[in-house]
Each structure stands twice: as structure tokens, then as C-alpha cells.
Specification:
- With about 210 residues, this protein is of the alpha/beta class.
- The chain is built from six helices and eleven strands.
- The protein has one domain: Rossmann fold, CATH 3.40.50.720.
- It is about 35% helix and about 25% strand.
- It has a nine-stranded mixed beta sheet with strand order 3-2-1-4-5-6-10-8-11, sandwiched between helices. A two-stranded parallel sheet has the order 7-9.
Length: about 210
Amino acid sequence: MRVLVIGANGKTGRLILERLVDGPHEPVAMVRDPDQRPHPEVETRVGDLEEPLDPVLEGCHAVIFAAGSGSSTGPEKTLAVDRDGAVRSIAAAEAAGIERYVMLSSMRADPESEGHPISHYLRAKGIADRHLERSGLHWTIVRPGRLTDDPGTGRVQVAPRLESFGSITRADTAAILVACLDEPSALHRTFDVLEGETPVVDALRNLG
């Protein structure tokens, strides 16, 4: 499959590209700035989540959405990227006949979130997730805990809902997002993921 990575120039997005380059699929990187090239071996396309995405999706078969407004932006930018941009990409993917869509979300994403320091972010993610679940796409929603820049271990814990909070490396998050592309047990699943003891592929298969 030709896989469009939205948010390819972010920390997690770059790790996703590295995974895809070493695998059976052909990655395509979507960036906002034409001067950005997140990986020398990957085709780069310029696109903006606040603009039509049809040209960027041309010829692609799958999407990994790894874009985020970032912790330094305000609620308005969070809504523009994490909610509206994600919803726009889902609609564009449906119109383009995309086969597979994998969403990088967040633990406790909830359209009704209240009383949390980042409730605006959790609501935005929750609304996007719900929109994807109701779409006609073959989707997976991955909800990691706090992302760290530590080296990956290749081992995680996965469940529809994990009661404990914790962290997971960006490297392992990238690994599980890419693995979802080919794992039937991940189809039409929403799940939490944290660092753990189970190899990534086994953890996904256990969802079934």
C-alpha cells in the first residue's frame, strides 16, 4: 500500500516514516512547509489540514494520522488541527476511496471531557475519533499514554481501556501504528496502549 503519513514532520511522524521505509509499504509524507523533507527516501507532498486534501491523497491506499497541534498552542489551534483537521482528513479519505485509516489519538479522549487540565484537547480528539468510528473507512484508533523520547522496547500493553495511566515511547507508538496496517485484529478497534511486556504484534493479535 502507499501510505500517507499526516504529521510526518513531527517527532512521532518521522519514526513512522522510518518504520514504513523498512517495511513492505510505500510511505508518502505530508508536510505544511515545502522546504521540509522529513526523510530523504520518502516522497513528500505539501498539504494543510485547514485546506482541501484531495491532491495530497491521490494514489494513496492508507492514511496514518499523526498530526497534532502541540502543547505550546492554544485551544483554537487544537480545534483546528486535532478536531477539524482530523475530521476533514477522514472525509477526504472516504471521498478518495482510501482502504485503511489509522488514527493516533490519546488515552481518555472523550467528546464530553470536563475537569481535566487538557479537556479541550481530549474533547477534540474524542470528537475526531467518534467521527472516524462512524465513517465507512476500515479504521483503527490508537490511544497511547504520555509519549516519551526514550528508546523503544518493542513491548507494550494493549486493551480497549487501561485503568492505569503511564507512558509509552514514541518509537513503540510508531511501531504499533504501522503494525495496525496489516493486522486484522486491529480492524475497527479503539484501544489504549502503554509500555508493557508483550511484543507489539502479539499485543495486537490478542485484541481479537
